[in-house]
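Bumping with the actual sequence this time:
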Amino acid sequence: MKRENIEFMRKTATDGSSEDTKIYGLEDGEEQYYTILGTGYGINFAHCFSMGAKNKEKFWERVFAYKIIPNRDHADLLERATGEDYISVEFYELS
């Protein structure tokens, strides 16, 4: 993991309080040391993260790392259907 590959995400509760988390970007081959939570497809990293948070139980507490993946079959399909650019991001938790 490189220091510059860190994403900071903020969650705001209905009472106005907020919680921050760090997510570390993985280099090729590092994903073997983690357990995959799932893959998000979205128009940007935050969109992919929010899809994971909505669709995976305790995603916010479990997510530790991410990797933008070159296998873009699903993202390419979404781009053709919507005309917008999409990215694919795999999210990981500690094993």
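The tokens above came from a reply further down the thread. The radius of gyration is 14 Å.
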